[in-house]
């Protein structure tokens, strides 16, 4: 049984119509990163932040899984391989494509989190500043998204899977955001084979044993077909 850890980023959902996260100009969907993707931005203007993620949630719900999502779902359900599917994305396209289990290291648009007591619950499609936490009753609800300055989810589980892996595959990631950008170095240090599948070379492309570049909807199904005919 081949043990494969797959990391996906925004590039895999771009062909489903979801814009990739670009921090180079300090903007995300025409908003300053510090205004919509930090705890401080939420504290300053929770209404703006909730509206921003309401729009992202609606866009994600309207999107459809593409051929890359579907290929990975087929691989993840193949009993000849043990696949750990980790995503930096906050959409649910992997799940809707049929992936049985997805580790969302940066949280999910479809989860809600109380900024006061840290209680979690499924997010409504529209979150409002007047929404009350079902646990503590305070109007301190936010999306369950990992913002800048916060610790990604499930790191111990991801690191354990990497230590056991035979192959690490990075798909649709820029290689700019840590700690995910460091996974290839961790894999190489452990002697694990590494593969990059990306539209263009990532920042860390030179650290991979192999790299294939092109649209995810083409190169991901082609790669899956080589190990799962």
UniProtKB/TrEMBL annotation:
GO terms for cellular component: cytoplasm. The active site is at residue 106. Keywords: Cytoplasm, Metal-binding, NAD, Transferase, Zinc. It catalyses: N(6)-acetyl-L-lysyl-[protein] + NAD(+) + H2O = 2''-O-acetyl-ADP-D-ribose + nicotinamide + L-lysyl-[protein]; N(6)-succinyl-L-lysyl-[protein] + NAD(+) + H2O = 2''-O-succinyl-ADP-D-ribose + nicotinamide + L-lysyl-[protein]. The keyword Cytoplasm applies. InterPro entries: DHS-like_NAD/FAD-binding_dom, NAD-dep_sirtuin_deacylases, Sirtuin, Sirtuin_cat_small_dom_sf, Sirtuin_class_III, Ssirtuin_cat_dom. Belongs to the sirtuin family. Class III subfamily. This is NAD-dependent protein deacylase. The lineage of its organism: Bacteria, Pseudomonadati, Pseudomonadota, Alphaproteobacteria, Rhodobacterales. The gene is cobB.
């Amino acid at each position: 049984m081949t043990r494969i850890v797959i990391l996906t980023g925004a590039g895999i959902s771009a062909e489903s119509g979801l814009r990739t996260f670009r921090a180079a100009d300090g903007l995300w969907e025409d908003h300053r990163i510090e205004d919509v993707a930090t705890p401080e931005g939420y504290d300053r203007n929770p209404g703006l932040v909730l509206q921003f993620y309401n729009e992202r949630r609606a866009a994600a719900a309207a999107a459809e899984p593409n051929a890359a999502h579907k290929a990975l779902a087929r691989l993840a359900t193949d009993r000849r391989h043990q696949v750990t599917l980790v995503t930096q994305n906050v959409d649910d396209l992997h799940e809707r494509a049929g992936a049985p289990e997805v580790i969302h290291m940066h949280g999910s648009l479809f989860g809600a989190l109380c900024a006061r007591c840290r209680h979690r619950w499924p997010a409504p499609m529209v979150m409002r500043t007047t929404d009350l936490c079902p646990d503590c009753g305070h109007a301190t609800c936010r999306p369950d998204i990992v913002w800048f300055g916060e610790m990604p989810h499930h790191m111990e589980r991801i690191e354990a899977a990497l230590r056991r892996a035979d192959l690490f595959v990075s798909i649709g990631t820029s290689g700019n955001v840590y700690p995910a950008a460091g996974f290839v170095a961790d894999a190489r240090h452990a002697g694990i084979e590494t593969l990059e599948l990306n539209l263009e070379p990532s920042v860390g492309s030179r650290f991979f044993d192999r790299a294939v570049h092109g649209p995810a909807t083409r190169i991901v199904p082609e790669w899956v077909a080589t190990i799962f005919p």
